[in-house]
Every structure is written in C-alpha cells, then in structure tokens.
C-alpha cells in the first residue's frame, strides 16, 4: 500500500451526493493539486482525509494505519495531518513567535524553542518575530497561520484554498515560497483550489474534480491536450465548437487566421491582452461566434478573415 491511501471514500449530505467513491494513492513527499469549481466536493474530501468528517463508506490510511473519523475517535483529527484553510486564526495579542509556539505547549521547551526558530527561518519571518498580527500584511499573516500548522511537524498538509484572501501576486509569491518550505521538510501536500494557475504554481500533478467525481488525473500537458470533458478543456482556455459536428472543439490558440482559404468570418470584437489580441469572430455560413487568438495583432473589428486549423488539434469531447 502507498504511504497515503484513500480507498473508495464517499459522502452524501441529506441524500445529496457530495463525493462519489473516490480513491487516491500518494507517496511520501509527493505534491498533488485537486482542482474543481465551487461545490465540487473538495473540502468534504479534505476533511475526510484529515479525519474530521465521517464518510459514508471507504477508508483512509496513513503509513498502513487507518485514519479514524470523528465517530471512531474521541478527539478528532491528527497532528500528522493538518488541514489549513482560508479562515485562519491567529492569536491577536500574541507575537508571531508566540503564535508559532502555541501549538507546541506540550512539547519539551528546548525542542519548541528550536522548532520556532526553524519555522521563522523557513518562512522568512525572522524580522517579524516580535510583531503582532495587526502589524502584518495579509500574506505574512497567512504564512504565520501555515507556520502554526507546520509547528507540530505534520507528515501531510492539506491546503483548502488558503490563499483566497490574497491578491494574485501575493498568492504566486507565497505558493512558491511554501513549495520550497514543504520540499525542505519532506512534507506530503494536497492543495485544493478552483484556480488552475494557482495549482500549477505548486505542482503539475493534477486531479480534476467535478460534481463530487474525479473526472481526470494527469499533468497539465496531458489535461490540456487530451481533456476528457468540456469542463477539463475549459480550465485551460475557451473552446470553439466546430460547425456541423456534435462534439468537436478547437482552442482559440490553435486557429490560424489567413486572408485566403478556410472558413470565412468577420471580426466582431477585439481585446488587447498581454501576449495577443483576443478576437471574436462570426462565422459567415454557420453564424457561430468563435474566439481566436491573434498573436500578430493584425486584424481589426470589421475585417474579413479566413480561419483554418490542424485536424490533430481538434478535441472530441
Ligand atoms: N455540512 C453540510 N451539510 C449539507 N451539505 C453540505 C455540507 N457540507 C457540504 N455540503 C454540500 O456538499 C457539496 C460539496 O461541498 P464542498 O464544500 O465539499 O465543496 P467545495 O468544492 O469545497 O466547494 P467550495 O470551493 O465552494 O468550498 C456542496 O453541494 C455542499 O453544498
């Protein structure tokens, strides 16, 4: 059996299925991101993994030991598996160093002291050790919250959208810093998020969850090039339906714009984006509206263009 193993775990609330039978095997030190829209069952799954939620069926094992749920264990949860979410709690009247040492009250004093020093170094918070939470930025507060969870040296860290209160630049920086910290500690990490970009900053090992079901597992390249469903395909870009087909689609970046040969269309809208212009086209014959990338910024609203593509780029979903 793998280091962390989830076997056919499922859960319903009031006869509504939140999680269909879900299985997963992770090795020690592995990083995994679970991506899914709101309500797809991500938090339910993490809470079951952490022993904080009673599942209807299935089992979770860490190092061959069963993780017991709140019905089976008096004090629910485990020091070895820490769940970190957005609504972090810091002690407002305690400094950064005191916040980090609070979970270590029952540990030997010397050990606790060294552990806090290690965490301050790992998290780049040494200059802030004597500050109070109100004197910190949102990103620094979140780092202290993550540090609190890491103080007891968990084997597994479950991140439940912990960065959603931060802006995207803070999130990018924090995710890459945390990645180094987790690597240095050898921690196994599962990160759930609705944002594929955030997920990819941590790892390329992805699971896509939709309506409580695992729809696809793989690297970003595999999921982008061979998505199994429209939902997976749309995580990477909009998709355009080919005329006169039932389920064939093409991505805006895979379309070529020409002044001759192809499907005739008119440019109805153009947006200037960082790396290309995003055009909206109306196809003459079918009337379909398509999105097309124009990396050369060549076309303008009202232009006539011809669109073509490579058959290998067509996705049948
Ligand atoms: N305690 C509960 N009682 C009843 N229904 C619940 C409960 N917790 C979750 N659900 C339902 O289960 C489904 C999955 O919820 P869950 O919170 O796991 O999804 P999620 O992917 O984490 O969503 P979000 O990203 O919005 O947090 C949702 O339909 C939700 O309404």
UniProtKB/TrEMBL annotation:
It comes from the Bacteria. Transmembrane segments: none annotated. The lineage of its organism: Bacteria, Pseudomonadati, Bacteroidota, Cytophagia, Cytophagales. This is Iron(III) transport system ATP-binding protein. GO terms for molecular function: ATP binding; ATP hydrolysis activity. The keyword ATP-binding applies. It comes from Algoriphagus chordae. Residues 4-236 form the ABC transporter domain. Keywords: ATP-binding, Nucleotide-binding, Transport. The keyword Oxidoreductase does not apply.
């Amino acid at each position: 059996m793998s280091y962390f193993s989830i076997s056919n775990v499922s859960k319903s609330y009031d006869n509504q299925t939140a999680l269909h039978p879900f299985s997963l095997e992770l090795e020690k030190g592995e990083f995994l991101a679970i991506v899914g829209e709101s309500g797809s069952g991500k938090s339910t799954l993490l809470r079951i993994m952490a022993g904080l939620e009673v599942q209807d069926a299935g089992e979770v094992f860490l190092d061959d030991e069963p993780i017991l749920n709140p019905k089976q264990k008096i004090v629910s949860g485990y020091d070895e598996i820490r769940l970190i979410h957005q609504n972090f709690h810091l002690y407002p009247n305690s400094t950064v160093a005191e916040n980090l040492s609070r979970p270590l009250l029952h540990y030997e004093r010397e050990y606790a002291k060294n552990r806090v020093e290690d965490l301050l170094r790992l998290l780049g918070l040494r200059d802030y050790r004597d500050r109070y939470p109100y004197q910190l930025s949102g990103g620094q507060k979140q780092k202290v919250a993550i540090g609190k969870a890491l103080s007891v040296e968990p084997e597994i860290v479950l991140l439940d959208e912990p960065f959603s209160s931060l802006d995207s630049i803070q999130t990018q920086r924090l995710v890459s810093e945390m990645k180094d910290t987790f690597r240095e500690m050898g921690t196994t990490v599962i990160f759930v998020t609705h944002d594929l970009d955030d997920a990819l900053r941590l790892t390329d090992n992805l699971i896509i969850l939709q309506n409580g079901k695992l729809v696809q597992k793989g690297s970003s390249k595999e999921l982008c090039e061979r998505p199994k469903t429209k939902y997976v395909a749309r995580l990477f870009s909009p998709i355009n339906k080919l005329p006169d087909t039932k389920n064939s689609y093409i991505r805006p970046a895979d379309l070529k714009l020409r002044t001759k040969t192809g499907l005739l269309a008119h440019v109805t809208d153009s947006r200037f984006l960082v790396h290309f212009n995003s055009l909206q086209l109306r196809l003459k014959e079918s009337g379909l509206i398509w999105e097309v990338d124009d990396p050369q910024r060549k076309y303008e609203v009202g232009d006539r263009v011809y669109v073509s593509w490579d058959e290998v780029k067509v996705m049948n979903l």
